Input
Amino acid sequence: MELNMDKEAKTTYPINDLAKKRWSPRAFLDQPVEKEKLISLFEAARWSASGGNEQPWRFIVGVRPDDTWQKVFSTLNEGNQEWNQHVPVLIMAIGNKISSWDGAISPVYQYDTGQSVAHLSIEAMNQGLHVHQMGGFSYEKAVELFNIPETFQPLTIIGAGYIGNPEILPEKLKQRELLERIRKDLKEIIFSGKFGNTSPIIE
Ligand SMILES: Cc1cc2nc3c(=O)[nH]c(=O)nc-3n(C[C@H](O)[C@H](O)[C@H](O)COP(=O)(O)O)c2cc1C
Output
């Protein structure tokens, strides 16, 4: 199905094609994801970098209509549940808070887990899939439903699947699906000398 949607990043400088085409849809096809494609997402996550190679990431994967999918879905807030009914795969990303180096809370476990999900997101594009990360869910309910140990922290839920037609969404969400994607200017985020001073690498 060819959708008349221009979601590609309007980059000022060239970037790789998968990153350029990545975006977070809410309309997914009601179509299962092949197991071998799904596994590649986690393989990419597994090979991302982490502080001290601690690999704090863990993933709970629900494949619709299995019991895990139902449980992950039930933790989502109302706004997210509205569009996730059609999403074939729901993944909960969980971070190990504790560093094995000193037994203290790692200052980078969330950073590391987020980075593994970034790798997963790009691999999804490579497999012809899209993902949509969500922070809007109940951490408490997740901990309870999945018996997550105290030393682990649920961080995000990630919907994954084939991109669908925005027509399946309620009107309000359909409009959001068609919005132009925007970003801060590079001048606002790359500094040199001191914080806030735009770097001269930006013309
Ligand atoms: C940590 C995180 C939490 C997010 N939480 C939600 C959410 O609860 N619901 C939602 O619809 N989108 C959520 N998003 C998606 C963002 O809104 C989206 O990534 C952002 O608007 C940029 O759009 P793009 O991914 O299409 O480039 C989240 C994204 C991230 C990375």
User: Anything to note?
Assistant: The mean pLDDT is 96. The domain at 17-188 is CATH 3.40.109.10 (NADH Oxidase).
